Amino acid sequence: MNHARDIAHEYLQKAYQRQMEGDVEQALLLYSLSIEACPTAEAYTFRGWAYSFLGDLNQAIAECEQAIELDPGYGNPYNDIGAYLLEQGRLDEALHWLERATQAPRLQHPCMAHFNLGRAWEAKRQHERARQCYLRALQENPKYKLAWVALGRLLATSN
After folding, report:
1. How far apart are CA 78 and CA 98, in angstroms?
2. Which residues fall within 8 angstroms of residue 145, CB to CB, at 6 or more apart?
3. What is the mean pLDDT of residues 5-34?
4. Which of 72, 91, 93, 129 could share a disulfide with 121, CB 3.0–4.6 Å?
């Protein structure tokens, strides 16, 4: 690793820690410093996540688009855009981004993308597709509680 990348990584770790402690404003500053030191798709994605904590989903989406521009193979920003669009009720757009997330060559938590895809299909009342997505999420991570809850809810409503 080069020096700038090391510094960027340090800022990224500190930013994540601050965000988890609830200091989103400080996290945003540290994510920005990480990007200034050495722009990475991860830093843009996490900065978008911080903006989502503040309710600024449009800025969160813009940050994820920057991440994709830097590294189109990194799946996390596709998933995050899909999740933000779901929150905005933009289901068809969300489906597009979530499908791309599930096909990305590098995705940290595939279970989350499949779960979110299931949420989108469930919102569109496509229960069989949603069920398949929740099952796929559980294949990826059998301990993913949100997928178990969603699958249970879906099964309960179909009976």
Report:
1. 6
2. none
3. 97
4. 129
The stretch 105-117 carries a mean pLDDT of 96
Q: What is the mean pLDDT of the chain?
A: 96
Within the chain, what is the greatest distance between any pair of CA atoms? 59
Residues 6+ apart with CB under 8 A from 12: 30, 31, 34, 40, 42, 43, 46
pLDDT, residue 2, reads 85
Whole-model pTM over 0.85: yes
Query: For residue 74, what are the β-bridge partners?
Result: 106
Q: CA angle at residue 84 from 101 to 50, to 5 degrees? A: 100
